[in-house]
Amino acid sequence: MTNEEIIETINNFLVEEFEVEREDIEPEAVLKDTLELDSLDYIDLVVEIESNFNFKVKTEDFVGIKTFQDFYDYIINKVNAGVVQ
Known about the structure:
Elements: H1 3-18, H2 31-35, H3 39-53, H4 68-81
Helix pairs in contact: 1-3
Protein name: Acyl carrier protein
Main location: cytoplasm
Subcellular location: Cytoplasm
């Protein structure tokens, strides 16, 4: 899966599951604010990541994720590292 395909997959499930407008998804936009995430939404986000990319997400992994670019980089790095737990 290329980086572009990973980002497209991410954007697709964000639009579908979190009802965010595609044009609001900008690399430097703040993920939490743009998606209006609460604690239950984070659980949904983890489920989406795990089901789409086949790796386990740890709570502490989200500590450094602020922007969409941080989110993309996190998933791309995990997918490219072949992390399957």
